């Protein structure tokens, strides 16, 4: 799925987060440039901006399920 064509429920993948190589994080796109995810095992679920900053820099791609 192209970033410009994301729909609610699409899985969004990130690479190189936390110094890891390859795909290292996944979230669920919630619309309007935001996604839901758990930043780490010590955090609660977060609502983050996919379009700028850290997550935009680590964005790898997306998949639509179903």
Describe the protein's architecture and organization.
This protein is mostly beta strands. The protein is 9% helix and 41% strand. The chain is built from 1 helix and 5 strands, in the order E-E-E-E-H-E. It has one helix at 53-58; strands spanning 11-15, 23-31, 34-37, 46-49, 59-63. A 5-stranded antiparallel beta sheet has the order 4-3-2-1-5. The chain is globular, with a radius of gyration of 11 Å. The model has no long low-confidence stretch (mean pLDDT 93).
The coarse silhouette is globular
- Report how far apart the termini are: 13 Å
| Structural class designation | mainly beta
Proportion of beta-strand residues: 35-45%
The biggest beta sheet, please? Answer: 5 strands, antiparallel
Strand arrangement, major sheet: 4-3-2-1-5
Poorly predicted tracts of residues: none
Report the mean per-residue pLDDT as an integer: 93
Note the run of SSEs as H and E. Answer: EEEEHE
Radius of gyration (CA) equals 11 Å
User: Using DSSP, what is the number of strands?
Assistant: 5
